[in-house]
Structure formats: structure tokens, C-alpha cells
Structures
1.
Amino acid sequence: MSVPDRRAQLFRMDEARRQTQRQLDMIDRQIIRRMTAVIPQLRPHSAGSGRGRGPGPAMFLERYRANLAAITQERQHEIDALSRKLARQDAAIEVLRARLPPDLRRA
């Protein structure tokens, strides 16, 4: 394969990697958006524990983490698949870059 062909292939592979990363970022933003919608429900609605105070920050964090884990678990198979794909793409890009002359590796 000629150097221009390798550079073109590297460009395509980099673009595919960026697309995969965008998909992972989109899933992350969706999880954040869902957690933002859930936060008001995690706060105490009444003065249920001790002299008009809510259950406190430790209880809030516990509920927050439990909800975050549940929401993330729903998308975990997608996250795992995209993470594996990203790792394969990174490895393939490094192999192709190694085949380019040193002055053209970071274009």
C-alpha cells in the first residue's frame, strides 16, 4: 500500500474512531440528563427525621449512587460494546501509524 493510501486509510480510521467516541459521549450525556431529572426526587419531601431536618447528605448520596448505578446498568451493554470497539480502533490506528514514515505519523 502506498503512503498516500495509508494516509487516506488513517484519516478514515481516525474519523470512525471519533464517531465511536461521540456515541460514547452521547450515552454519557443521556445518563447525566436522566440523573439531573431524578435529583429532585432524591431530596426529602418532608421533615421526617429529627427536628425538621431531612435525612442528610449521606442518605442523599446513597440514593444518588443507587440511581446512577441503575441508570448506567441499563446502558452498560452499549457502553461495553463501544468501549471494546474503541480499543480495537485505537490498536488498528497505532499499527497503521507505525507503518507510515516517521515524519508522516502525526498528520
2.
Amino acid sequence: MVEIVHKNPDIYKIPVFLPNNPLKILNSYVIKTPSANLVIDTGFNQPECLEALTEGLRELDIDMDKTTLFLTHLHSDHVGLTNDIATGNTRILINEIDYDYMKNERNSDYWPWMEEKFYHEGLSWDMIELQRKVSPARAYAPKYLFRAETVKDGDTFKIGDYRFRCIWTPGHTPGHTCLYMEDYHILFAGDHILFDITPNITMWRGVEDSLGNYLESLKKIESMDIDVTLPGHRNNDMDLHERIHQIQAHHDRRIQQTLSIIQETPGLNACQIGAKMTWSMRGKNWDEFPIQQKWFAIGETISHLDYLIKRNKITRHEENGSTYYTSNI
């Protein structure tokens, strides 16, 4: 079950199965040293995930009392099992921005605000209520908010003789953070860069331009000296720079398609624009999309709309509880 994905330093991968999820597997990475260990990301708060992760940790003989748990970002497939595997002596690290979002999700009107936003963008309340019932972000989140030590861009820490640097890469989430072993040119990429699927970039409360942030974060990684990239899902079978260029081209096409739809049919909301976009859902039209995929698609459409608004290419109009868009060019 456990795989060794790099030697000297020895890096192990525990594949954590994600039931009924298109991502299929969460890659939890482990580094062992005589004095301390590092575990990166956990999987959903689901029995199947817990079984896979704990079996892998047991196989590697990981003592969580001597372990640092690094969480690349707040999504439930990366943090869901934190309470289950951490002990009172486990050091838990997560970016300060994402940790604040986790607090707000539990202690404020964050989710009602999101639902209201999607409703104004054209998603029916029936679909919103269905999404509320099946959302893995809610259903498989940690049982309670864990206590963590927060990190920011450039922070460093050591595990045994190995040094790690936190690389803030906002976009996929506002506080998404990669982990870099500068001495070995190894990057733990979380969901910032995936190699056979494109990371979802959605809207976030309090963030004006998450797509713009993401594209800047790609440039940041592109400028670094990296020989090995270890993603949070699936495998890495291509050159990092080639993949970055592919992702940049993908978003360039999406931006142009979004603008063209608005120019051809002004007055549409995000749900209507998303329905006209090209998505990689084989054999399914927009009406057949499962609600989770439709939710992600609308969120990504809004991120592209925000990007165009930020650059004064389009205008968002809000009238009588509804939202629509027109072109400025």
C-alpha cells in the first residue's frame, strides 16, 4: 500500500482512497527521521479514508507524538482526519489565512452567504439545498476545529536534518501553501499544480480575484528551482514547466470564452454563462451535471468573471436580487 516516491531523502506516499469522489485518491506524504516525522495532508473524515491513512502510518511505524502534520490547505480532503490522527503532542501547521477561513466557516454566516451568492447567480434553491446535503466539504470536514500553529509565506522549519520552506500560493484556496525542500529541489504541491486534472479555482468571500492570484502563484512556482513535484492527487508524469504552461493556456482559453459569451449574449448570470462553457464532463450536458460538479463549475465561472471585472473588461450588474454581466469592450 505505502509507496516510496523518492530516495535520499526517502519520501513515502500513502494513497488515501476518496470514496465516490472524482479525485479518487489523496496523496498523503510521509518523511521519517530518527528524531521526528512529517506527514502532509490527511484525506476526508470518512471511515475508508481513516482506515487507509492509519494503516499506512502503522506500516511506516509513525509515532504521531513525534510528528509534525502539515496541511497544504483547508479543503476537507486534505484536513478531514486531522483530529483522528493527531495526538496532544502532534504539531499541526497550516497557513494562517486558511485557518481563519476554517474558523469563519464554523462560526459565522459563511455558508449562507455562499448559498445566497450562488442563488443570485442563477442556481435554484432546490439545487442549493441538494448541494447542502451532499457537499463533501461539509459532510467530511473535521469533527471540530483543531488547534494549529499557523504559518505564512517564507516560514521555515526542520524535521530531523531536513529543512522545509512554506511557499504561499493563493488561488485554489486563499491560504494554499506548498512545501519546498530547497536543498533537494523538491516541491510538495498540494492542489496548486495537478498533472492530469486542472485545480478548481473558485470565488472566495473577501477575495476580489482568486484566478488572478492563482496565475501569479503559478509564475512564482515557475521561477523556482524544482526537480521533483509531488501533487496532492493523482500522479506526476510530465515536466513541471510544461504543465504550468498547459494550465495557463487552459485559463487563457476560459477567459476568452467567458468574454465571448458575454459579448454575444449580454445579460446572462454566472449559471447561464457556465452552461455555455466547455467542460470536461464526458457525454453529459449542463443539465445532467451532478450538483457537486455544477457547484464547482459555477464557482469557477465566477472566478473568471471576477478576473475580467478586475481588468475592466466586463461589468457586473445587480438588480432586484439578480446578477448579470455585460461587456465593456
